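Support case: user asked for a sample of complex input and structure output to validate their parser. Sending the pair below.
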Amino acid sequence: MNRKAEARDRILRAAIDTLATQGFAASTARAIAVAGGFAPGVIYYHFDDLDDLFLAAMRYTSDQRMERYVECTATAGDPSSMLQALRELYAEDVATGHIAAVQELVVGAGTSARLAEGVRAEIARWEEYAETLLRRLTAGTPLEDLIPARAAATAVMAFYLGLEMLTHLDGDRARGEALFAAAEPLAALLGMLLPPPGERA
Amino acid sequence: MNRKAEARDRILRAAIDTLATQGFAASTARAIAVAGGFAPGVIYYHFDDLDDLFLAAMRYTSDQRMERYVECTATAGDPSSMLQALRELYAEDVATGHIAAVQELVVGAGTSARLAEGVRAEIARWEEYAETLLRRLTAGTPLEDLIPARAAATAVMAFYLGLEMLTHLDGDRARGEALFAAAEPLAALLGMLLPPPGERA
């Protein structure tokens, strides 16, 4: 990576950290510069304005997480191993600040039509991905025609964003962990009821 | 209702309208007073400070909506009529500004520990209610032991709050309506599979 790309990366990471830890309203050029250890002017050498930086930051974290999601769910054929993969991916979403930054950008999108448009596009990308995953899990099973995959993907996105709001309100991550734990017996049962991927029509 | 209670009600309704239409950050004493058509000083005759008003407004809208939820779901025994009741209640949540105001208060709770505590208590009340509803719907059916009611209630709360975030981002209510429509065939199927309430063990 050349020096310009390295500097750009550093700004994007600083923007994500600042959004995740300080929130959208506090994510000024100054705050992002302090978090990244560079002068505020550096931001404007790489980005037109803060909206431009936020949009690039959303794509940056989204791309990185999408790569991990595709990688980790690729081998998960049955509901239990899919749940296990999603649980680990969710823990990474938390640890990297991804989910907190995205939630702040969704809230902050109310301040700018351009930001809203970019955030909507990223949400749509994740919705499509969730739909693909769901279709793959249910393909060749009785659930295939039963679950409206597009609507279920929307519901999953809403749930994911809302869980982050509740987590923020609680001040701890117990709620998310309890949900994954509670889903385990259901996933195991579903795994027993559904034909394994190899034996599907 | 005496004149003091009437004035208090008017302030509470103005606070909910302002939160719902202008957002938490813009809900100053002045903005609420303009919305309600009274002098800002009137607020401080009835409430200690804005947090005190926001907490009272959250309980006020929550009490009113809870009363409607209990009333409208009381006669809904099967999944389809429950879904229909919830769809109408959700439309009311939207029309009254309830859901938008609550979402703003959940976001705004980050600014004050006292506000956060009050919002958490209201969320917990709705979570318990959702759990009760779910247990009533599944009582005496094979789903009773299958669905972890507490975790499912948490998931429903997260979904409800997240849907409002996405709706805000979209700028229209199409997403929520599509979800209710997509859930209808599922509810109908579930109604056919589950024993009717009168014939349960």
